[in-house]
Amino acid sequence: AEPPPEAAPGTRVGPYRVVALLGRGGMGDVYLAERADGLFERTVALKRVRADLAPGVAARFATERQILADLVHPNIARLYAAGADDDGRPWLAMEPVEGTPLPDHARGRPVREQVGLMVQVCEAVQHAHQRLVVHRDLKPSNVLVTTDGRVQLLDFGIAQMLGAGPERQRLLTRAYAAPEQLR
Question: For the segment 146-181, what is each residue's pLDDT rounded down to a tens digit?
């Protein structure tokens, strides 16, 4: 059985209040959250590191934060804010994306539309590559299509900045990894 989410609705994380669990990943949970400090209103996708991993993934999370801060593109979910809980656990507040995984959205659509979606994916990936960022986790759950047909690339949690130092760990999703990564 999966453990319950670490933040129940109403839990404060930085200036945000958790509304609901959106999803779970290898490093933590993602919540729908609302700005709760009264400065302004905003709904975000709040990514929070799991308590048992917090000390070990702080550097990886810092890399993801910097990568997202540098990637401003209409097909990449935007970073709004970042911080750490009172207990030191890092969090990211990002643009919430309501959408369908690319393969599900594209299934049965005209080829011209499917190609247009792939062009958007390629433009987002090209934008990252121009900034020397390799995503390393392109899979259906990380490429969503919104109701207005806009592709959104998500989750740069295991992305790598080229030339930023040696990569100590090979992080990947086996089913979607490039052959050279598996070798």
Answer: 999 999 998 867 667 777 665 555 565 666 666 666
Residue environment code for 4-42, b if the CB has 16+ CB neighbours within 10 A, otherwise e: ebbbeeebebbbbbbbebbeeeebbbbbbbebbeeeeee
Nearest to 92 by CA among 121, 124, 60: 60
Catalytic residue among 52, 104, 137, 155: 137
With 0.85 as the threshold, say if the pTM is over it.
Answer: no
Round to whole Å and give the CA distance between 183 and 178.
Answer: 9
pLDDT, tens digit, 9 for 90 and up, residues 87-130: 888 899 999 999 999 999 999 999 999 999 999 999 999 999 99
Give the residue from 36, 58, 37, 35 showing the smallest Cα distance to 48. 58
For residue 164, the tally of other CB atoms under 10 A from its CB is: 12
Is residue 137 part of the annotated active site? The answer reads yes
> Which residues are CB-neighbours of 46 under 8 A, at least 6 positions away?
13, 16, 18, 30, 31, 32, 33, 91, 92, 93, 94
